[in-house]
Fold this protein.
Amino acid sequence: MIAFKNEWLLFRRSRLGLVMILLLAALAIASVVAGLVEVDRQRAAIERIHPLQKQDVSAIANWVTKTGTAGDAAYFTFHETWDPPSRLAFAALGMRDVSPYLLRVRALGLESQLYDSENYNPELALPGRFDYAFVLVYLAPLFVIALFHDLISGEREAGRLRMLEATPGAGRRLWVRRIGLRYLLLVASLALPLVAGGIVAGAHLQGIAAMVGLTAAYMAFWVLVAWLIGRLNIGSAASAASMAAAWLLLTLVLPALAHVAITRAVPVNQGVELSLAHRDAVHGAWDIPQEKTMAEFFRYHPEWSDTPPTDGTFHWKWYLAFHHVADRSVAPQAQSYRQGLLERDELTRWVGAVLPAVGVQAAFTRLAGTDIQAQLTYQDRIRAYHTRLRTFYYPYLFNDRPFTEADFAKAPVFAPG
Amino acid sequence: MSALTLIARDELWLMRRSRVSVIAAALLIVLVVIAGITSVAHQSNVADTRARLQAQVDEEFDNQPSRHPHRMVHFGHFIFRPLPPLAAFDPGIDAFTGNAMFLEGHRQNSANFGDVRQSSILVRFGQLTPAFVLQTLAPLLIIFLGYGAVARERGAGTLRQLFMQGVSAGTLIAGKLLALATVAALIAIPAMSVLIFVAAQPGAAAGPIALTAAGYLTYLALWSIIVVLVSASVARPRNALLALLGLWSVTVILLPRIAPDLAATAVPQPTRLETDLTLQRELRAMGDSHNPDDPVFAAFKQRVLRQYGVRRVEDLPVNYKGLLAVEGERMTSELFDRYASEGFARQARQSATMDAIGTLSPAVAMRRLSMAAAGTDLAGHARFLDQAEAYRYDLVQRLNRLQADAVSFEDDAAKSSDTAAEQRSRIDPHHWHAMPDFHFAPPEPGDLVRRASPAAVMLLLWLLVPALLLAPAARRLEGVRS
Amino acid sequence: MTYHEPSGLPLLIANLVVDYGAHRVLNGLDLSIRPGEIYALLGGNGAGKSTTLAAIMGFVPPASGEVRVCGVAPGSAPVQARRAIAYLPENVALYEHLTARENIQYFLGISSERRTNAEIEAAFNAAGLQEDAFNRRVAGFSKGMRQKVAIALALLRHVPLVLLDEPTSGLDPRATQDFNRLLGGLRERGSAVLMVTHDLLSAADTADRIGFLDAGRIVQESVAEGPDRYDVRALHRHFARPVAA
């Protein structure tokens, strides 16, 4: 214990070390605050939508109820869906800056609505956001370099190494204490702001604990790298240069190479093809007999097959039916598009198993619910909601029931995760 | 041989003898080559795919059967954002914007299927392009190779010996700089070859490419000067390395990340949905085409009737519904344009804020220059969106006018309840052939150069600061002698 | 105090052979020091002085022969042996940003030892460090002052064996005199001192015995007192003789 206290004294007195730890803590705090602010902004944006949406629906209800045409209601009413940030999202904003967390859908073909983009400034998205995961993955290893590159070589270069080694009780335990102290300070300067942020955000204990564990493990990896390079006995400057080179390779070069490889290995052009096919299916419906479309539709919804047939003129039930048939006709492409994205994600996980920077980033966005899987989950929720929406309108259309003011309020409400 | 070249040759020889330096330099050159090859391949692949898809959808549009023109308004058109030739060098924001856009009547859709939403988290680690290697990695190599240039001589005591031989500090620094700049130039060769390759492509213009090349050479020279300057100002090689690593991580890694957050906070961007909802509300306030008593549309009807000198819309020589569609599109598009230009202005303000913060970092100025000259920046994207909207408006209005001229009012009014009227309201497909295709008009080379100029000036100013500090640093270094 | 009473001479080296690869550095070295004795080991460059110190501290293993520090073989129990040793390198390097007192506390702490402030101050006084330097950062200390700090540390640890590597190189005559007085203090406390040096004059001033190391063995040994007492001039002649001879 005395020895540890002495190490602390030694560390505290070396200005460089203390400044580094405080700087890292400041960066971690700044990133957590930035993350919390961004998450709040997203929540506020979602909150702002609800009243606007209500106004929008009531304006539509205003004129639709004059005729009570259910098809008009189904065609003109957009229904809101939203994907609130998780309690841990502040730590890793992930893809939430480039993918929509608010989307309105109609009971029409979903495949032409689902992939809409968010409005964002691509120049702001290009460098990425300043969040805790960034501070941890990119910056913290640089601090490890600063704190550890001369751990042994510094003693040798100052001429103290022999005397230290000749002091009984030095040896391995001394290095364990020195490394341990620096390591604990590093982890604390990162983890304390993270935990504080988690408490402010009201996150679950397990989630915070997992992120703290990842932080500790990632830092341990870099300390190990620093220790191994330090043992090469190549002098402080050469150690620092070697560590920086290792950092460069592991966090910039290899992930970028992996990205090139994955992009080439799993091309995903299905998105565009699916959109084109969907458009053809929707508009082609006008050129084929209505019975054919309806027969197809009844295969998916046999409960309506007993309703009166359409007469070849326009009818909303036919209109919604062919939209659904179009969705069904591109289901294989939608599935393979989704599959392609998952495959890329899966490969990224493999890369993450080898490259700690990628692995930690992936784990953080997973825990924070801000990765591509979270995006797909949101899409799944929208799909489920869209089905409820369609089937909400069908009884009005197929039973020729008028759509009244009260019916607008009966529409299903989206349930976020 | 002069003292200067001797010192430079000596320094180069030392780097050449250090296995680590040689490996590092070779690795970087290999990376530039890989980045160059994959970027060029990716660029031509993407350009081909988009061109092929564009041809495919153009053909599909032309081959649509007889239709009611308004149905074609909603059948709409897909357009694909072409990639400028210099995107092979610096794709800029390409991966962060959608590349397929669906155009239809009275809606402004987003550009969808951008790589960023399709590429897992790896895309956020930076893309391996020549621009990325030169902007981010090359400075680090220059630091590794050069941090000890002067500090090493000082630490080993050879500095005094050199001074005793009559070498001036200025000559020493110039010699070290010459050596480092030579290596930097060596790194730049493969990247410059990519530029030359791009210059040979159709559609490439000399001005922006020359500016890009000059910009990167300036940038590498700038880092060489910074490295020698720090090496000459710090007592120990280790301290020089730490200072330079710190400078690099702040200017190349940290600042570019903080700047977007500050910009987004300074100029908040509403979500697409919020914009959409406010737009819809304003649209309703402008007039309600569903309401026969709406004053705006009633006034429009009176105007039309007066113009044609008839009393009823049924007596018009043209289809009133078509005229109404033209008028409706005009009104909504005006609103769209206003919102779009507000949006562009907002994003431009964000980018300007980011650039202002970026004056603290030569890497940000370099990135701006590179993207602006390549036409892969926000302005380039905005240019595409502008042209897309102009094309959309023109296409939709042509179709609306077809509805007015080629479909009779009676058929149009009865088409929902009368299959025969519906058939008559469909017009011949040759009309679709007559519709123009979308052709992106690339920016003028002079325009690109002009856009890149402020960043170029910023980079030159950056070059000036450490260059001017070299002389005092040399004087201080000579003070070591006494 | 964690150190156990010595169960033998502070230092006993018998027929020690140390090889660095194919190169034989120590070749049958015999050397023993009694408590309270100061032994000066002289020798030219490459004679094996540093290796002797390294072997005593357990940093290099003997090829044959034995080393005993208070009865403990440093090769097999380095930690235990080092408890009996204080080592002062040629340039005592301390933690620059710690004060003299904190340096003492730090090095004691490494071996989990603790002393009161009064004890530390007493050691500083005994080592001849001026009082105003106790709580000053050692960054501005001269070589002599640093040695005093290190000697104080040795005194506090009550070590039976003090190893000094070129202690007087670079000291001015006055500081050398100062240092020699300090050695006297160590002798009075019963520590054995092994001083490796080039400095014949200083050695002659303080040493009880002087050994001359050449090619890895003691080739000549003289004592300060009695009929065999050494003659400085003769030693100097010996010392200046070409190594090859």
